Fold this protein.
Amino acid sequence: MKAILVRQWGGPEVMQYEEVPKPEVATPGPVPRVLVRVAAIGVNPFDTYMRSGNYSIQPTLPYIPGGDAAGVIEAVGPGSQFIPGQRVWIGNAHSAYAEFMAVAENLVHPLAEHLTFSQGAALGVPYATAYHALFQVAQVKAGETLLIHGASGGVGIALVQMAKAFGLIVLGTAGSEPGREMVRREGAHQVLNHGAEGYRDEILRVTQNRGADIIVEMRADLNLEADFRLVAPRGRIVVVGSRGEAKVLPRDLMSRHASLHAFTLFAATPAELAEINAGLQAGLENRTLRPIIGREFRLEEAPQAHEKILEPGAFGKIILTP
Ligand code: NAP
């Protein structure tokens, strides 16, 4: 089969499109495994961090990148609940940048007919992250005000849809006009431009100077210091993304009796992941969760996709198709 292989750490160019052995389905393990013919792959920012070699998790070289995908069950191992031909999505696995992937079936979920394979591949990490941030870390309540600082990307749009359905007052930011239009269309009550001078004053104005009860932050390196002054009294800041160091004034947080939370989805417990999957399943069935696909690239164009996902102007999810 064809796959993207990383043989050394480095820039997007270290990803090579190669012929590699098709994986075996029946590798023994505690959980039954399935072989999936991959139809779409979700590109996540951490795929790029991992490939560069500067991430907390380093797979053994050479490795096939990618955690999220969707496709069709090709074969099943002993004890599996799936059947060949079934449409599925896969979240937070590994070796997804390939024509086939063998995966433990606790990471595999049926894909409803109304969703495309690309939408299925957009679910895993972004939607699980959004659910974890809102319901398990921030423990939001209906009626609270939420600032999504970076609402136009894969995680941001998931947050908009979940928060709107749950009854939060949603403020979302995006850097481009198409991004802001999408955030508005998906249900945000107020949409701001995080590239515009004075937009933080606007956040205070629309919250009657209280600030937001919850801030979910995609660029803590750029925004955390200001977030400490944009959070409401007793509010919560949840750091989801950061590309570097942040300078903060703890007193801004102390005077608001506010709290700072941060996580990586890799550290979620099995019980939390089970709850996340149940929540996502319900949201997909009642159609409040509708992944938005921006750019699609061919699998062999993975290097371009890795460049694109780090550029400004996010618009939903970037997908690779084998
Ligand atoms: P993405 O699709 O590339 O979206 C990136 C988002 O960041 C876009 O909405 C982008 O807006 C926004 N952004 C850019 N500059 C910003 C600024 N100055 N202020 C606020 N937002 C800004 O990525 P994603 O998949 O949504 O992931 C978002 C972040 O969360 C990434 O850093 C990723 O690594 C991280 N993440 C963490 C976890 C975890 O477990 N903690 C899980 C998934 C993702 P514009 O392009 O419109 O400017």
